[in-house]
Design goal:
Blueprint lengths: L1 E6 L3 H12 L4 E7 L2 H11 L3 E4 L8 H11 L4 E6 L4 H10 L3 E4 L4 H12 L4 E2 L1 H12 L12 H11 L4 H8 L3 H15 L4 H10 L6
Parallel strand pairs: 1-2, 1-3, 3-4, 4-5, 5-6
Length: 211
């Protein structure tokens, strides 16, 4: 039985993915999450074979979550399922350790094919991703700015951009205020942001949060 976790902040999307999974007798939904932190907690608890993961998740975005899963749940394969097909999202997602990438605009058959491929421990990429990989093989790929962030810096940057202050971030991540300040300063520097407003603009541009 292939055990699959669904993580998306839109209930209608989770329902659609669930229906695709339930149509296969050898596939099982082992959990659903509406934000990144909940998805991480469920993944650690349930240890799914595959997690179908949106990039734009509250609290812990899909790229940062993929990094955490790659480290804490190494046997779980990540399938990014998103509306974003820009080079930035694709390259950072793959660099974080995703094994598959399907667009929400793709047909249902692409999602089924992707889950089947990852279930057989094979990667699966929809057309825009395949084209990016081909371009990268032929040319030197420009490194995304997000790749310079640590996983914790991404988490802190997202939470700050979502409107949380240092104390709230410390409570959410269960770390000290001093540690938050250190990660926040590093994230601001790497983003080239001098103010919280500039960090918000950076986060929106790089799909850490939704406008």
């Amino acid at each position: 039985m292939l055990r699959i976790l669904i993580a998306d902040d839109h209930e209608i999307v989770r329902k659609g993915v669930r229906e695709v999974i339930q149509a296969h007798p050898s596939w099982q939904v082992c959990g659903e999450a509406s934000d990144g932190q909940q998805a991480l907690d469920l993944a650690i608890k349930e240890k799914p074979d595959i997690i179908v993961l949106d990039v734009a998740l509250p609290q812990l975005n899909g790229v940062a979550l993929t990094r955490r899963l790659h480290r804490e749940c190494p046997n779980t394969r990540v399938l990014l399922f998103t509306m974003h097909d820009d080079d930035e999202t694709i390259s950072t997602g793959l660099a974080a350790g995703a094994r598959g990438f399907v667009l929400k605009s793709d047909s249902e058959s692409h999602l089924e094919a992707a889950i089947s491929a990852l279930g057989a421990n094979r990667p699966y990429f929809s057309s825009p991703v395949s084209e990016l990989l081909l371009d990268a093989a032929l040319n030197d790929r420009k490194r995304s700015r997000l790749e310079g962030f640590t996983a914790r810096e991404l988490e802190v940057a997202q939470l700050i951009a979502e409107g949380n202050n240092n104390k709230q971030v410390a409570r959410l991540l269960k770390i000290s205020n001093k540690t938050v300040e250190s990660h926040r300063a590093a994230a601001m520097r790497k983003a080239g942001a001098r103010t919280a407003a500039e960090l918000v603009r950076f986060a929106i541009k790089h799909n850490l949060i939704q406008p």
